[in-house]
Amino acid sequence: MAAVVLAGLAISSVGSRRRCTFPAAPRLPQCDKRIILVDMDGTIADFDQRALELLQARTQQSLKQEPSELCHFPLTKQFQEHKETLESIYVEENFFNSFKPIEGAIEALKEMQAHPQLEVFLCTSPIVQSKFCSQEKAEWVRKAFGEDGDSWVRRLIITSDKSC
């Protein structure tokens, strides 16, 4: 009989049959709060508006659009003729920390976090082609939340996959 232990998983073989035993899952602390994940771009930070301002300045074309008129995600699908320009804007230094907060969003998040049954986190995806994106998003949070900025940076989750 041979036995192997890999990362807490015991595998033993008896004859031609294998048997796996899994250790008990560690107990997580009881949490009576509901966890709320809030996206940043387009929810609390006005990504599209800033991208359009910069695109308009580069192309010298009037691109004023109401948020309700922006019907494609990502923005490059809405403005396919300017895809390369938009993609170059997204990787520029200071793009991500230049967004305006969406009106009322910061106050709403602070109010939600103050609720005794809620635990609020910011969840955002980086543009991986930008070497500035992740750091600038953290800087934006620190600046936008003012005196509470450091505590909100600790509530920032940066992940390429928000589907789980």
Automatic annotation (TrEMBL):
<dbReference type="InterPro" id="IPR010708">
    <property type="entry name" value="5'(3')-deoxyribonucleotidase"/>
</dbReference>
<dbReference type="InterPro" id="IPR036412">
    <property type="entry name" value="HAD-like_sf"/>
</dbReference>
<dbReference type="Pfam" id="PF06941">
    <property type="entry name" value="NT5C"/>
</dbReference>
<dbReference type="InterPro" id="IPR023214">
    <property type="entry name" value="HAD_sf"/>
</dbReference>
<protein>
    <submittedName>
        <fullName>Uncharacterized protein</fullName>
    </submittedName>
</protein>
